[in-house]
Design a protein that fits this description.
Length: 205
């Protein structure tokens, strides 16, 4: 395989539909909530050079895009996906690292954050230097939280006034410390236990 990870541009518009389909099918397979994207939205990110795409000699392999909030003081990476044919190759980590470094270059003063229920994404974020934080440390921009409306867990988020959900908030502040590996390695068992506790609390009748 000859997989390249590059900044997505207008020439990659043709991949927008398969990107959306792959994101949605992956969420359905995992049974997790995820905000839906449209091909037009993905193309807009490509047009603004706010996305990276992984290609194997022209065949779609993976994708991730950048969103910015509050005058670019906060940025987030969304839609991280790897096509089923290219999973278990460490590609997700490579894509995330690429978009992370690109974000620091394009938005040098921004705090980088994300919310996710996926343990694989949490592990990658932790290795990049993110730390778990309460939602109060994330952007307060209403348009960000509006993007959660198509997620299956949105009612939980709304009932908690955007302060809590099944997702975990994670933040990287470039002014706080340099990009170094965390002192405490990511522990999947601990995160699984915390995730189950949160689900029990939020989903009980």
């Amino acid at each position: 395989m000859n997989i390249s990870i590059i900044i997505a541009q207008e020439e990659h518009f043709k991949y927008a539909q398969i990107i959306c389909d792959t994101i949605e099918s992956s969420a359905l397979l995992r049974g997790t909530g995820i905000a839906k994207r449209t091909p037009e939205y993905i193309q807009k990110k490509m047009e603004n050079k706010d996305a990276v795409i992984a290609l194997d000699n022209g065949v779609f392999a993976g994708f991730c895009y950048i969103e910015s909030w509050q005058d670019s003081n906060y940025v987030a990476h969304s839609g991280l996906i790897v096509h089923p044919d290219y999973r278990n190759l460490g590609l997700a980590k490579k894509i995330k690292s690429k978009v992370f470094d690109y974000s620091l270059e394009k938005y040098p003063n921004a705090k980088v954050f994300g919310i996710t229920t996926g343990l694989a994404v949490m592990k990658i974020n932790s290795e990049l230097g993110y730390k778990p934080v309460p939602f109060s440390e994330l952007t307060t921009d209403p348009s960000f939280w509006k993007g959660c409306q198509t997620c299956t867990n949105y009612e939980i988020l709304k009932s908690k006034e955007n302060k809590l959900c099944l997702c975990t908030g994670m933040l990287y502040d470039p002014k706080e410390k340099p990009k170094t590996p965390p002192k405490h390695p990511f522990n999947v068992r601990i995160w699984n236990r915390l995730k189950k506790i949160k689900q029990a609390l939020f989903l009980e009748d």
